[in-house]
């Protein structure tokens, strides 16, 4: 009750049309129209216009010369010629002249066009009114009548068998395009789960291409290894090393916190996959004092002394560890493939 | 002579002869004694160790302990070898100025003779990598292409593909390799200072280290060419992209503004 009274009070008193009427302008949003056109010097003085014409032509001519210069420098300069150019220092003569001439050629076309448009082309302001998009009623009526005629003549409403089979045919045709998507490469099958590592494969030092021996690997050192039998000039070398790349470090066995990691190591020599489990960057920014490995792409950090546990960053899994031992010749060897897929996760990884 | 022999019975003659004999003996001793001492090689070595121990007690013992055993402020120096001392002290990293994420390179405090004495003392604490000879680190005649291959496999992940350095975790970083002497690069690979892992001769032989030094000196030396002009620190797409967006696009916007701000009308308003 009372609230209604208050709201009644809060409202302004009813407008007295006779007393408080505001005089409304005839059109408060009248179009002020375009300002008066002001001419340019080139519009008044023919000599200035000629001068502008010459300037534009000069820029286009210089652009032509720069293009010729580009072709000439491509022919003249050998690819390994180094010259000193202030302030750039020792630069390749070829790169520098190609960049300079092509830059000038493009810039002068643009600058000439801008100068032409600003000084010589018509700059009279023009207003272009909008038009309704809708068709006229006569056209609309004609189209609808034509459509009704067509429907009646084709008898699509009466011969339902034809209509339904046509709909079926139209619905099935796109499937042919969907089936063609199957050609987007063979399925990866088991390739993501397996690497070249297998029981008995020796660890080959990627510097010397010799089998690694446990006594070669000292505490605090970093070594990269690849599986025995992989040749650098093999056609699938890149595909194979992208999965099999291995980093070898040695940690005092007592400092290895993870029990399984210590068992899979050989006297403190641990072998981890070099491929980050986030998006597969090669990682080996190893800090020997903390045993942390940092990925340069997204800063995922792994602790190699704790089974390569993720201690920072977006990676979802620890780096897979390769189980290693020593064979009868005293060389380091793998005791099998990685126990889990290396690199980034995928849908079916599990 | 006649005069001298005439005075041979002078009361002071005996004194003169004695003085001459003493002078001759002293002179002979002074002339021969140091030469005889220098011939004893191990004595010189132990002298260097003694001198090094004195320098160590003054400059290093507060952090590394009186016998190099290490304290909570500094690691043990037993077994780090003379190469580690030559690198750490020779690049000014040691003695450290203040604790922190990383001990940076700075002005060298000791001269080379003192560094050698310190190195001799630390090497005497336990066997470790030995300071390389000039012939071991000289990159002339090394295989630059092989060095590049090895650098990209072993070093580029931290030091960037031309040795410009890069960031690590918690404020640590891999330093720029420009201007680092071949000897110090060699020693760093051999000993693994601070966060850097070591690359001992057993996994990276001497010749490969030379190849790497030759590569670094070719791509990141004083007279290395930069074929594309301004290298912008050689840090890759981040600095190049930033430069392109700010100066390239900024320049285009500035030209557009300049064109629009200058009216072509005859009568300026």
TrEMBL record, chain A:
Main localization, broad class:
membrane
* UniProt keyword annotation of Transferase present: no
Obligatory cofactor(s): [2Fe-2S] cluster
TM region positions: 56-76, 96-117, 161-181
Q: Which SUPFAM superfamilies match?
A: ISP domain
Q: Which UniProt keywords apply?
A: 2Fe-2S, Cell membrane, Disulfide bond, Electron transport, Iron, Iron-sulfur, Membrane, Metal-binding, Oxidoreductase, Respiratory chain, Transmembrane, Transmembrane helix, Transport
Q: Which InterPro entries match?
A: QcrA_N, Rieske_2Fe-2S, Rieske_2Fe-2S_sf, Rieske_Fe-S_prot, Rieske_Fe-S_prot_C
**Span of domain Rieske:** 269-333
Concerning Gene3D superfamilies, the annotation shows: Rieske [2Fe-2S] iron-sulphur domain
Q: How does it sit in the membrane?
A: Multi-pass membrane protein
User: Does the keyword Chloroplast feature in the UniProt annotation?
Assistant: no
Where's it found, cell-wise?
Answer: Cell membrane
Q: Which family does it belong to?
A: Belongs to the Rieske iron-sulfur protein family.
Q: In its UniProt entry, what is this protein called?
A: Cytochrome bc1 complex Rieske iron-sulfur subunit
- The organism of origin for this protein: Streptomyces salyersiae
Q: Write the lineage as a comma-separated list.
A: Bacteria, Bacillati, Actinomycetota, Actinomycetes, Kitasatosporales
From TrEMBL, chain B:
Top enzyme class of this protein? translocase
Q: Fetch the SUPFAM superfamilies from UniProt.
A: Cytochrome c
Main subcellular location of this protein, as a coarse class: membrane
Its annotated compartments are:
Cell membrane
Q: Which UniProt keywords apply?
A: Cell membrane, Electron transport, Heme, Iron, Membrane, Metal-binding, Repeat, Respiratory chain, Signal, Translocase, Transmembrane, Transmembrane helix, Transport
State the annotated membrane topology for this chain.
Multi-pass membrane protein
Gene3D superfamilies this protein is in?
Answer: Cytochrome c-like domain (1.10.760.10)
State which residue ranges cross the membrane.
242-261
Q: Which reaction does it catalyse?
A: a quinol + 2 Fe(III)-[cytochrome c](out) = a quinone + 2 Fe(II)-[cytochrome c](out) + 2 H(+)(out)
Checking InterPro entries in the record gives: bc1_cytC-su, Cyt_c-like_dom, Cyt_c-like_dom_sf, Cytochrome_c_Oxidase_Subunit, TAT_signal
Q: What is the annotated signal peptide range for this record?
A: 1-30
| Entry keyword Heme | yes
List each copy of the Cytochrome c domain by range: 47-126, 142-220
Keyword check for ATP-binding, yes or no: no
EC numbers: 7.1.1.8
Q: How does it assemble?
A: The cytochrome bc1 complex is composed of a cytochrome b (QcrB), the Rieske iron-sulfur protein (QcrA) and a diheme cytochrome c (QcrC) subunit.
Q: What is this protein called?
A: Cytochrome bc1 complex cytochrome c subunit
Give the species this sequence originates from. Answer: Streptomyces salyersiae
């Amino acid at each position: 009750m009372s609230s209604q009274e208050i709201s009644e009070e809060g409202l302004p008193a009813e407008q007295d049309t006779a007393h408080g009427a505001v005089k409304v302008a005839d059109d408060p949003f009248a179009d002020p129209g375009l300002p008066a056109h002001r001419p340019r010097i080139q519009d008044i003085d023919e000599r200035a216009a000629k001068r502008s014409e010459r300037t534009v032509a000069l820029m286009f001519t210089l652009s032509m010369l720069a293009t010729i210069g580009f072709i000439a420098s491509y022919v003249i300069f050998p690819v390994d010629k180094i010259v000193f150019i202030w302030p750039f220092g020792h630069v390749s003569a070829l790169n520098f002249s190609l960049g300079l001439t092509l830059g000038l050629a493009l810039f002068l076309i643009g600058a000439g066009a801008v100068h032409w448009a600003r000084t010589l082309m018509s700059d009279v302001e023009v207003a272009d009114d909008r038009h309704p998009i809708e068709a006229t009623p006569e056209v609309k009526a004609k189209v609808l009548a034509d459509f009704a005629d067509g429907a009646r003549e084709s008898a699509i409403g009466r011969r339902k068998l034809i209509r339904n089979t046509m709909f079926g045919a139209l619905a099935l045709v796109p499937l042919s395009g969907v089936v063609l998507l199957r050609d987007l490469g063979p399925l990866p099958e088991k390739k993501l789960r397996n690497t070249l590592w297998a029981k008995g494969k020796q660890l080959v030092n990627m510097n010397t291409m010799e089998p690694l021996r446990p006594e070669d690997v000292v505490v605090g050192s970093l070594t990269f290894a690849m599986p025995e039998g992989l040749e650098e000039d093999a056609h699938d070398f890149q595909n194979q090393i992208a999965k099999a790349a291995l980093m070898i470090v040695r940690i005092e066995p007592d400092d290895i916190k993870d029990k399984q990691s210590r068992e899979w190591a050989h006297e403190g020599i641990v072998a981890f996959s070099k491929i980050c489990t986030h998006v597969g960057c090669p990682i080996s920014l190893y800090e020997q004092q903390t045993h942390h490995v940092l990925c340069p792409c997204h800063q995922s950090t792994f602790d190699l002394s704790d089974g390569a546990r993720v201690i920072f960053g977006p990676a979802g899994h620890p780096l897979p560890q390769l189980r290693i031992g020593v064979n009868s010749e005293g060389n380091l060897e793998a005791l099998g493939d990685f126990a889990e897929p290396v690199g980034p996760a995928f849908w079916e990884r599990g | 002579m006649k005069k001298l022999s005439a005075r041979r019975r002078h009361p002071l003659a005996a004194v003169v002869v004695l003085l001459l004999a003493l002078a001759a003996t002293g002179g002979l001793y002074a002339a021969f004694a140091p030469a005889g001492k220098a011939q004893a090689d191990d004595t010189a070595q132990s002298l260097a160790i003694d001198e090094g121990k004195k320098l160590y007690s003054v400059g290093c013992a507060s952090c590394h302990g009186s016998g190099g055993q290490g304290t909570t402020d500094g690691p043990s120096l037993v077994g780090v070898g003379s190469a580690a001392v030559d690198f750490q002290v020779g690049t000014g990293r040691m003695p450290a100025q203040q604790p922190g994420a990383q001990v940076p390179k700075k002005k060298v405090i000791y001269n080379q003779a003192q560094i050698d004495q310190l190195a001799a003392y630390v090497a005497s604490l336990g066997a470790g990598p030995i300071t390389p000879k000039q012939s071991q680190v000289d990159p002339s005649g090394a295989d630059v292409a092989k060095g590049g291959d090895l650098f990209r496999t072993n070093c580029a992940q931290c030091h960037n593909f031309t040795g410009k350095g890069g960031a690590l975790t918690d404020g640590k970083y891999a330093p720029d390799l420009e201007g680092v002497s071949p000897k110090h690069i060699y020693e760093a690979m051999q000993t693994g200072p601070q966060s850097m892992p070591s690359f001992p001769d057993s996994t990276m032989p001497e010749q490969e280290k030379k190849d790497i030094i030759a590569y670094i000196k070719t791509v990141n030396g004083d007279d290395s060419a930069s074929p594309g002009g301004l290298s912008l620190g050689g840090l890759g797409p981040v600095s190049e992209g930033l430069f392109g967006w700010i100066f390239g696009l900024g320049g285009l916007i500035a030209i557009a503004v300049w064109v629009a701000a200058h009216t072509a009308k005859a009568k300026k308003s």
